Structures are given as C-alpha cells and as structure tokens.
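Consider the following input, taken from an annotated entry for Cytochrome c-type biogenesis protein (Actibacterium pelagium).
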Amino acid sequence: MKRLILILSLLVTPVLAVEPDEILADPKLEERARELSKGLRCLVCRNESIDESNADLAKDLRLLVRERLVAGDTNDQVIDFVVDRYGEYVLLKPTTGGANLVLWATGPIVLLLAIGAGAMFVRSRRRSAQTSDDLTDEEQARLKEIMGE
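Applying the prediction step yields:
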C-alpha cells in the first residue's frame, strides 16, 4: 500500500507545480496560461517547463504569464514579453529563424560533409587497392622467390 501511495505521489507531482493560488478564475484564460507555460523553460531546472517545475523562478514566470493574460495580451504577446525579458533560451522549442538558423543547419551540414569525406576515403582506398595488384615482372619474380615457389 505504501508503494502505491509513493508511486501515485510521484506521478501527481508535476500537476501540483501550479499552486491553487495561481489558478485563474476564468477557465479559458487558465487553459491558455497552462498551454503557454508548457512551452516555457524553467531557468533553474532547465529541462522542465515552468508548468512542471516547483522552483520559485518558475512560479514567478507562471504568475507573470497569468498577469499578462489578464491584462489582455495575446499568446504571442506574452511569449514575446517573456523572451524579451529572459532571452530566447526560455523557449523549450527555439525558433528556426535568424541566428538560430545556423545552429539548426549545422548538424545536417556536418553529417553531409562526413558522408562525403567517408565516400572519398573509400573511393581512394579502392583505387589504391586496384593499382597495387598490378606487379611488374621483376616484382612477381621476387615475390615467387620470397614465397619459395
């Protein structure tokens, strides 16, 4: 029974990150706030959204999101406000434009370069293997002498 309670408490923990005093009275605004919170990174935990994190900074960010929504901001305006304040690192899924385009493109470009370099290496090894099979008469005679034939 204790194990069951422990397992259930571990599963419920992320849901408990949003405290009752943070929840908005308007269910539609609360739903928008929860959706936005799932896309924002906790700057303390780093791999959790602010919706899942129990850190004080995550709570502050959740409250900030809700304040902006109550003030009448759209979802994009709220995200822009938070990004302007904390930088693009706060987004769990960074944008693919601007300077980030270099970061997004670097992985595939390096992979293609590695495949090209590997193909060139294999091709050069095949060429060198083909040319080494052609021995002169003198080399063949020396080889037979070494082999004892």
